[in-house]
Specification:
By secondary structure, the protein is mainly α. The protein has a single domain, classed as Farnesyl Diphosphate Synthase. Helices cover 73% and strands 0% of the residues. It is built from 13 helices and no strands. It has helices spanning 4-10, 15-28, 34-60, 78-94, 99-116, 126-149, 159-170, 181-186, 192-196, 198-222, 226-235, 237-252, 259-286. α2 packs across α6, α3 (34-60) runs antiparallel to α4 (78-94) and α3 packs parallel to α5. The longest helix is centred in the C-terminal third of the chain and has 28 residues, at 259-286. InterPro entries: UbiA_prenyltransferase. This is UbiA family prenyltransferase. It is found in: Membrane. Its main location: membrane.
Length: 287
């Protein structure tokens, strides 16, 4: 029986926030092997992401709110070993999907460890930490999923949508740090969000998201996915509305950049994005 804190710090629910990348990659795959799609979903969302969360929590030993947990329990040594076992299982299962997927999953695991490990701790560097997160959780995962579900090698053809996924992550990730500047500083971590300041973080994220949406629009137009363009535009309206209203609240009072408002933003963005990409998947496969 796993320790209660171990289960909490694996943060399985946090995988919901990274799920849109999976659905977007699936929607753009020319051919889908659904057995492989289910397998890579399990590998990423039930093994790799939770393991990364757990390892990060074990290294940080946070006492204040962190992504997905408002009141974290003290970490248990068991968490470290569980995260290692989950990584091994993920790599073994990845062997069933080919060398490209195995390599991609391996790179993700190594990068996540270097991000958190006290001996390297990439997260302590504002730009390096930021780039590590958006590249791995965005473009790398896009290619992992694409090469899992399709026999065609998509490393070349998928560079634009892959870049868009990194920008979408890049336009939201700093927002997850706005409420914990002091906690990060006490741990020796200087985040990009801290460098930008609370209001600067919102401006930066807004600009990155604008570029991401512009490139995504151009991609859909270039590939003739007019239904996808409409579905995504409609699906993201609630996200745009909430983000704007949150920006206005933060402008009135920086204290509104707190954990609860962030989690609302995360849920709205992830659910709406997933619904939009699932709709695009249906539209593309039905056509």
């Amino acid at each position: 029986m796993l320790h209660k804190s171990t289960i909490q710090h694996l943060r399985f629910g946090f995988s919901l926030f990274l799920m849109p990348v999976f659905w977007f990659a699936l929607s753009q795959a020319p051919v889908i092997n659904w057995v492989n799609a289910c397998l890579i979903f399990i590998i990423l969302h039930l093994l790799v992401y939770p393991s990364s969360n757990g390892y990060n929590s074990y290294m940080d030993k946070d006492t204040g709110s962190i992504g997905g947990i408002e009141k974290p329990l003290p970490v248990h040594k068991e968490l470290f070993y569980v995260s290692m076992v989950m990584d091994i299982i993920a790599l073994l299962l990845s062997c069933l999907l080919g060398w490209a997927v195995l390599t991609g999953v391996g790179v993700y695991i190594i990068a996540s460890r270097l991000y958190s490990y006290r001996g390297v701790r990439l997260k302590q560097y504002p730009v390096t930490g930021y780039l590590t997160v958006i590249i791995c959780q965005g473009a790398l995962v896009y290619f992992i999923v694409s090469n899992s579900v399709s026999d065609a090698c998509l490393w070349k053809e998928g560079w634009l949508p892959a870049m868009v996924t990194s920008l979408l992550i890049g336009g939201t990730y700093p927002l997850t740090q706005v409420y914990q500047h002091q906690q990060d500083l006490e741990d020796g971590v200087i985040t990009l969000s801290y460098k930008l300041g609370v209001r600067g973080t919102f401006i930066f994220c807004g600009l990155v998201l604008f570029v991401a949406l512009l490139l995504l629009t151009l991609y859909f137009i270039r590939t003739g996915q007019w239904g996808a363009l409409l579905a995504y535009g409609v699906g993201m309206l609630p996200v745009g509305f909430y983000f704007t209203s949150w920006c206005l609240k933060v402008k009135e009072s920086p204290g509104n950049a707190n954990f609860k408002n962030l989690m609302k933003m995360n849920y709205v963005a992830s659910v709406c994005s997933s619904i939009a990409f699932i709709s695009i998947l249906i539209i593309n496969k039905a056509g």
